[in-house]
UniProtKB/TrEMBL annotation:
Keywords: Hydrolase, Lipid degradation, Lipid metabolism. It comes from Nippostrongylus brasiliensis. It comes from the Eukaryota. One of its GO terms (biological process) is lipid catabolic process. Residues 384-498 form the PI-PLC Y-box domain. Its EC number is 3.1.4.11. This is Phosphoinositide phospholipase C. PROSITE patterns: PIPLC_X_DOMAIN (PS50007), PIPLC_Y_DOMAIN (PS50008). Pfam families: PH_14 (PF17787), PI-PLC-X (PF00388), PI-PLC-Y (PF00387). Residues 688-718 are annotated as: Disordered.
């Protein structure tokens, strides 16, 4: 093929267009699509393509091209990819050769960025209908406009006006459509002005431990760890993750106070110097969060070494150590605890205070918390008592919600906490924790450092539910989800009804004041970027959904989704509810978890969301994700639906009343005007989150329309 000297290559060919390149070394091997930019050089001699990832250019001389095939003829020389079967007419195969028996086939599929557009009006309408949270009052939270949507798309790098399908997909993947956004930093700061007892506090158990609690526990089949080791670095890592309550088990040694799970001779754990630990705490205490760090001291030191410990605290922490109570919050009866805001950048010691000498003979010392063979704590020295204030440890009271010294706090094991629940004392316990701090720690039998589900203890109001941070498990995923709500600052505000002891909160009868239950409907639409293995083609994936709302947590709350499906769940207390998502892969009669995600219901965004899945260690597995439609709305009885709609959408209600008024004044309205009004009414009803229901029906969502136009779907999806 020869080209005339005066041939002018069109500008479009020189600038190029985006294509998918399908390559193969054999007609029997399916091609792997790769996005490239296809161009012709200005002289018209070379057809070349540049991959989007990497800089290696490939080319073919135009004089070597013997044929260009399109449509079905272009597909004859390769095994069609499933996702391209609907776009077979778009294929283009360039045929070149060096001789008759060695032809080369290079196939392209155009990525049309202009042919299909999603109108800005349509994308705004979809956002209003499906992405907007129906629980938001339209007067307080105005609906998005086309101008606002244009601003969002411009921030994503797209021009004003019509939007391409690519731009719409980019919008769905962007930060504007995250599944469960964190509370903004300014709102977090505004919420940190209440007493310390009004917050859940991210807490660690035996923070120094990197593995087992006891040497030899690795022989147990349930053990996920192999060693019994104490490490200073654990304090850094835990604090950097946002944990605000850490534990120090202090023991005597010839070189000064050390930290270990003692006695060391019994439990087989190494010792680390207290001074090194304090330096690590001082270094990392406030890098992630400015709010107070609480040091839970398990004191096994002699009086002499307690003085050394206190001196180490004073020397290492300096002004950050809270030695004396604040002037505004003295240690007096009836005085509430100070707020996290007032205690910013402070390190607070939790320990027992020394008893007056007259009481020492009658002292009923507590049994230490976590020992397999219980070991009593030593008596606190006056030096240690001098730096203990708002976290004064005491034994568990015989009656809850009695003592008015709110600076006194107790610790109890998970077993003791569950005993309170089983003895139907949880309601009094909730009132007790509205003013006083309580710490819950793992039962003594958890020698393999396994964890317990913290949810029920949070539901009972316990602020510090300590977990073994070294063990990756569903309990830790739940803990991460709780405190990610406030960007890992370590403090999350409790529901208002759990902060007021005058409220009749009943955990057993599921009766709670000032709460409005919600209904959650989940539609799993697709999974993206699933791990592939040719040897495991007959091992299907499936998804499980678990709701953690009110105890007990049983199988009734579990829904399974194979492929796609719907599951509707009524949630009594959304502030304390979590949705646990797990992606599984089946191998014969067994199944193995592949990825996880735990989402707080209270922050869950309505609409179409890409849920990025995570490892058991809470690390993102992106782009592995589930494309899910969430429909979250207030549960409203049918007879009160119109009243609820008027409250949540007052402007829409005014327009509806105006329409009815016009109908009375002008009874002969055109039918198309009536139809338009009915469509507007349907849109308002969709914003409420549910459709009109028969009197005996529960909330239900009709089959979901596509988030994009049918014409777009038919082109870009199978």
């Amino acid at each position: 093929m020869t080209l005339a000297n005066d041939l002018i290559v069109p500008k479009e060919f020189v600038l190029g267009s985006d294509f998918l390149l399908l390559e193969t070394s054999s007609p029997k091997v399916a091609r792997c699509p790769k996005q490239v930019t296809l161009r012709i050089d200005p002289g018209g001699h070379i057809l070349y393509w540049i991959p989007k990832v990497g800089e290696t250019r490939s080319y073919v001389f135009i004089q070597d091209i013997v044929d260009v095939r399109t449509g079905k003829r272009a597909a004859q020389n390769y095994v069609p990819l499933k996702e391209l079967s609907s776009n077979i007419q778009l294929l283009m195969t360039v045929v070149s050769n060096v001789d008759f028996v060695h032809p080369n086939f290079t196939t392209f599929v155009p990525l049309d960025n202009s042919a299909e557009k999603v109108l800005l009006e349509e994308i705004t309408d979809k956002t209003l209908t499906f992405q907007r949270d129906p629980r938001l009052n339209e007067a307080l939270y105005p609906k998005i406009t086309e101008r606002g949507m244009n601003a969002i798309l411009r921030s994503l790098g797209y021009s004003q006006g019509d939007v391409s399908f690519e731009a719409f997909v980019h919008y769905l993947w962007s930060a504007f459509c995250v599944d469960s956004p964190n509370i903004p930093e300014d709102r977090v700061a505004d919420s940190m002005h209440e007493p310390l007892s009004h917050y859940f506090i991210n807490s660690s158990h035996n923070t120094y431990c990197t593995g087992l609690q006891v040497k030899g526990a690795q022989l147990l089949s349930s053990s996920a760890h192999k060693e019994t080791v104490a490490d200073v670095e654990m304090y850094r890592q835990v604090l950097l993750s946002g944990c605000r309550c850490i534990e120090l088990d202090c023991w005597d040694s010839s070189d000064g106070p050390v930290i270990t799970h003692g006695p060391a001779a019994l439990f087989g754990m190494n010792e680390i110097p207290l001074k090194d630990v304090c330096e690590a705490i001082s270094e990392c205490a406030f890098k992630t969060s400015p709010y107070p760090v609480l040091l839970s001291i398990e004191n096994h030191l002699s009086q002499k070494q307690q003085k050394l410990m206190v001196q180490i605290f004073r020397d290492t922490f300096g002004e950050n150590l809270l030695c004396d109570p604040l002037e505004s919050h003295r240690l007096e009866e009836g005085q509430l605890l100070p707020s996290p805001h007032l205690l910013r950048n402070k390190i607070i010691i939790k320990a027992k205070k020394a008893k007056p000498k007259a009481e020492l003979a009658l002292l009923d010392r507590d049994v230490v918390e976590r020992q397999l063979c219980p070991v009593e704590e030593e008596l606190s020295s006056q030096d240690l008592s001098g730096i203990v204030n708002y976290l004064t440890a005491t034994k568990m009271p015989s009656k809850w919600n009695v003592d008015r010294n709110y600076f006194l706090m107790c610790s109890l094991s998970e077993s003791e906490s569950m005993k309170v629940y089983n003895q139907r004392q949880a309601n009094n316990f909730i009132k007790h924790t509205s003013r006083r701090l309580v710490r819950v720690f793992p039962a003594y039998h958890r020698v393999t450092s396994d964890n317990y589900i913290p949810k029920i203890h949070w539901m009972m109001g316990a602020q510090m539910v300590a977990l073994n941070f070294q063990t990756n498990c569903s309990a830790m995923l739940l803990n991460h989800a709780m405190f990610e709500q406030t960007s890992n600052y370590g403090y999350v505000k409790k529901p208002d009804s759990m902060c007021d002891p005058t409220q009749e909160f009943d955990i057993y009868e599921k009766r709670f004041p000032r709460r409005l239950p919600v209904t959650l409907k989940v539609t799993v639409l697709s999974a993206m970027f699933l791990p592939d293995n040719n040897k495991l083609k007959n091992s299907p994936f499936f998804v499980t959904l678990d709701l953690l709302d009110f105890p007990p947590y049983d199988a009734e709350a579990k829904e399974y989704a194979r492929g796609t499906g719907h599951s509707g769940i009524h949630i009594l207390m959304p502030e304390m509810a979590f949705l646990q998502i797990c992606l599984w892969r089946r191998f014969g009669c067994n199944a193995t978890p592949v990825a996880y995600r735990t989402l707080p219901i209270n922050n869950l965004q309505n609409g179409y969301r890409h849920v990025i899945l995570r490892t058991i260690g809470n690390r993102c597995l992106g782009p592995l994700s589930l494309f899910i439609y969430f429909d979250v709305f207030f549960y409203v009885p049918t007879v009160k639906l119109a009243f609820h709609s008027a409250l949540m959408n007052p402007f829409s209600r005014d327009r509806e009343e105006e329409r009815l008024s016009q109908a009375l004044r002008h009874p002969f309205l055109k039918q198309d005007e009536v139809d338009e009004d009915e469509r507007e009414e349907d849109k308002i009803q969709a914003l409420v989150g549910t459709e009109k229901l028969p009197k005996d029906a529960s909330p239900h969502v009709s089959p979901l329309p596509s988030p994009v136009a049918d014409s777009v779907v038919s082109k870009f999806t199978k």
